[in-house]
């Protein structure tokens, strides 16, 4: 590739606390909503008794092994690392007046370690988890009281880590609540539209309050939103399919519209009317929403198709039900591979918001098996990353402002949707199986060295996608 990525482009990887840390009750941490979503129960609240096992209780034990893992990230050449803070480490129940000092001290150590290697932290405030107590006692984000609890949490970590962290995200994939409300908002699956959209409104207000607090407390920092970028194509050129795809895409773009523009888009008025939703939106809420994000971040894994008049096979995933595209290949888990779609999404978002964009999740979940020499030759992952990053380069040449790219799971971690270790994303292999058994020894995959060279070349060694 003759194109070279900008010198200030941020290269790295992305993780979530509940998928890597383990140590789920250590040093005063409270239970989170993720702690009651064990194997295959993504989006469901499961009762938990003393002694019950969840693979995320151990995960990959990043809580204790972070120096080793961050050293590997530095060896890769990372200039940034996206991680999340576990809210229930800082406020174990969520509604306390004072934070848990042991939880705060843990992340001090993480940020100090990253600083040692010159790696910029990109920190998500809430990534698919919240204190379980808030879901059980307050009905999750359905309660307006959570706005104040979240603002207290945000201000606490801004004040504590402001010297170390200059890039923040509010809610991971905030639009996930449309598909899995318990995972995204602590609201039970099957809740009515009124409850869901009221809860999502409270999240949007809380996000805006966090943005305002960040701007006040950390004037030299940047804070963005984060969406699941799941674009839908029309299955045919029939006008009804074109319109249906537009409506489907508005469902997730709505969250960006509010967070980037500072008000509800006009098209939502009809949707709320047709759903029978009457939101409790105060004048104070409207004023708060005017505090908009500095940049837009998103995940990108796959695209789908929608049709109003033709039968389209539905890929029934844990979080998304996307229509199959006959022109695309799929992963081991049936996710469609569409590198060109990433360029489309980048152009779509930049045209819509004219704000810097950050790709904070993109990666391939696959079954990785060591060969007879014990090596993991994951050429399929290299091809996936190459083809997607090539399209990022194309988007940069289109004039899109892209801040950086963090591949999802630079190290093997517990899959969010399936709670499996066997669904591997990493450039670094972790010896653990789906029952949490293994040595947890880390091993570099072939993709590790490829990504290392990619960063060194500033993207120049990318090759055109294969047909």
In a nutshell, what does this entry contain?
The chain is an alpha/beta fold and 467 residues long. Helices cover 38% and strands 15% of the residues. A hairpin with a 5-residue loop joins strand 11 and strand 12.
Give an overview of the whole structure.
GO terms for molecular function: beta-glucosidase activity. This protein has 467 residues and is of the alpha/beta class. It has a single domain (10-456), classed as Glycosidases (TIM Barrel). Helices cover 38% and strands 15% of the residues. It is built from 14 helices and 16 strands. The chain has helices at 17-20, 62-76, 87-90, 101-116, 132-138, 145-161, 181-185, 193-217, 239-261, 267-275, 283-289, 339-353, 379-398, 446-456; strands at 10-14, 80-84, 120-126, 167-171, 222-228, 232-234, 295-299, 304-306, 314-316, 321-323, 329-330, 336-337, 357-361, 402-408, 428-430, 442-444. An 8-stranded parallel β-barrel has the order 1-2-3-4-5-7-13-14, surrounded by 5 helices. It starts with 9 loop residues before the first strand and ends in an 11-residue tail after the last helix. The model has no long low-confidence stretch (mean pLDDT 95).
């Amino acid at each position: 590739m003759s194109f070279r990525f900008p010198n200030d482009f941020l290269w790295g990887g992305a993780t979530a606390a509940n998928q890597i840390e383990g140590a789920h009750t250590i040093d005063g941490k409270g239970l989170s909503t993720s702690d009651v979503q064990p194997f295959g129960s993504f989006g469901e609240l499961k009762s938990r008794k003393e002694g019950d096992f969840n693979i995320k209780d151990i995960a990959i034990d990043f809580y204790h092994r972070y120096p080793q893992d961050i050293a590997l990230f530095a060896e890769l050449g990372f200039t940034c690392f996206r991680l999340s803070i576990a809210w229930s480490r800082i406020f174990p129940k969520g509604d306390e007046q004072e934070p848990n000092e042991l939880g705060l001290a843990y992340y001090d150590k993480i940020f100090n370690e990253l600083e040692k290697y010159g790696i910029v932290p990109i920190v998500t405030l809430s990534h698919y988890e919240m204190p379980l107590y808030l879901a059980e006692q307050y009905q999750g984000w359905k309660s307006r009281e959570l706005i104040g609890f979240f603002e207290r949490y945000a201000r606490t970590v801004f004040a504590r880590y402001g010297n170390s962290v200059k890039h923040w995200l509010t809610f991971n994939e905030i639009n996930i609540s449309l598909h899995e409300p318990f995972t995204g908002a602590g609201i039970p699956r099957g809740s009515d539209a009124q409850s869901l959209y009221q809860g999502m409104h409270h999240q949007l207000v809380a996000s805006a309050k966090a943005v305002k607090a960040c701007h006040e407390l950390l004037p030299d920092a940047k804070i963005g939103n984060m969406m699941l970028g799941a674009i839908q194509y029309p299955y045919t050129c029939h006008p009804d399919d074109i319109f249906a795809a537009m409506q489907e895409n508005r469902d997730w773009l709505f969250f960006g519209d509010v967070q980037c523009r500072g008000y509800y888009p006009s098209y939502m008025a009809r949707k709320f009317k047709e759903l029978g939703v009457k939101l409790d939106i105060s004048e104070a809420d409207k004023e708060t929403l005017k505090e908009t994000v500095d940049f837009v971040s998103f995940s990108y894994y796959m695209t789908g198709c929608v049709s109003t008049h033709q039968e389209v096979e539905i890929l029934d995933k844990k979080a998304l039900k996307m229509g199959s595209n006959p022109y695309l290949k799929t992963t081991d888990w049936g996710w469609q591979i569409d590198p060109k779609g990433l360029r489309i999404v980048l152009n779509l978002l930049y045209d819509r918001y004219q704000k810097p964009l950050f790709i904070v999740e993109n990666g391939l979940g696959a079954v990785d098996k060591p060969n007879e020499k014990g090596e993991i030759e994951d050429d399929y992952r290299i091809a996936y990353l190459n083809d997607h990053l090539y399209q990022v380069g194309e988007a940069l040449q289109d004039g899109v402002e892209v801040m950086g790219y963090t591949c999802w799971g630079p190290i093997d971690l517990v899959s969010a949707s399936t709670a499996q270790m066997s669904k591997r994303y990493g450039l670094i292999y972790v010896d653990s199986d789906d029952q949490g058994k293994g040595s947890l020894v880390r091993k570099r995959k072939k993709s590790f060295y490829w990504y290392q060279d990619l960063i060194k070349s500033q993207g120049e060694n990318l090759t055109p996608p294969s047909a």
